[in-house]
Amino acid sequence: MTAAALLCWALLPKPVPAGGTVDALSGTPALQTIIWPREMAPGRAWRFIIIHHSAAAAAPAKASAPGRPEGPSEDGVPYHFIIHRAAGPADGQVTATQQWIEQLDGASGRPTDRPDLGGDGIHICLVGDFDHQKPTARQMTSLQLLVMSLRDRYNIPLELIVGHSEINNTHCPGMLFPMEAFLMDVREAYLMKRIRGGSGEAP
Ligand SMILES: [Zn+2]
Questions:
Q1: N or C: which end of the chain has fewer CB within 10 A?
Q2: What is the pLDDT of residues 113-172, one digit of tens each?
Q3: Distance (Å) from CA 109 to ligand 1 centroid
Q4: Does 79 score more than 80 pLDDT?
Q5: Distance 196 CA to ligand 1 centre (A)
Q6: Is the model's pLDDT at 72 over the cut of 80?
Q7: What spacing in Å lies between the alpha carbon of 4 and ligand 1's midpoint?
Q8: Of 190, 192, 186, whose CA–CA distance to 202 is shortest?
Q9: Measured between alpha carbons, how far is 120 from 87 in angstroms, rounded to an integer?
Q10: Given pLDDT bands bounded at 50, 70 and 90, which one contains residue 109?
């Protein structure tokens, strides 16, 4: 098992210290208040988006892997965003972690299969073990809204929205994560937006 795969499995089931949590399904403005809060560090030129699962039933907490060269953020959660899994309305809620607020590298390491991308990836973790269960519909809707907001801001092309396993030797985000269907949903959402007279941006 690689260090990256180990990290996915090494996460402990503790509550996530939040930079901010919101019900993304309540609308894009609510989501954007936690993605770009006033106290955020100056923005970086993020180039790609990496999707993970927590490989556990609870939200990921501090990474146990030591020695991150860029230094840990205050809360030490190795992802920029967490999409929660829960019974009831908390299902699909999005947390922006301190790692995002401080605009630090994700701690899952640099992409060994795409070294050209460097450390400029936004790491999103969905809570759940998608080798054994599917993400919930609310998690997938929140993921879509989050990804669309991020790629609009940073001009990230669809082909640079990837599952962790596409750039590192790991099973993350699990066999049951519907990557292809997700990307088709995102593409379709942009087409609908264009038809309705939205931004008109090509997917
Ligand atoms: Zn991962």
A1: N
A2: 777 888 899 999 999 999 999 999 999 999 999 999 999 999 999 999 999 999 888 899
A3: 10
A4: yes
A5: 35
A6: no
A7: 7
A8: 190
A9: 33
A10: low
Token representation of residue 11: 């996460």
**Rounded mean pLDDT of 39-49?**
89
Distance CA 67, CA 69 (A): 6
Element (H, E) at 4: helix 3-9
Q: CA–CA distance from 91 to each of 79, 178, 189 (Å)?
A: 18, 18, 22
Strands (E), the chain: 20-22, 48-53, 81-83, 94-96, 121-126, 161-163
Distances (CA, A) of 194 to 65, 148, 149, 187, 188: 44, 14, 15, 11, 10
DSSP label at residue 94: E
Q: Give pLDDT tens digits for 165-203.
A: 998 888 999 999 999 999 999 999 989 888 887 655 555
First to last CA, the chain: 35
**Ligand 1 centre distance from Cα of residue 165 (Å):** 7
Distance from residue 68's CA to the centre of ligand 1 (Å): 16
CA of 169 to the centre of ligand 1 (A): 10
How many Cα atoms within 13 Å fall on the side-chain side of residue 90? 10
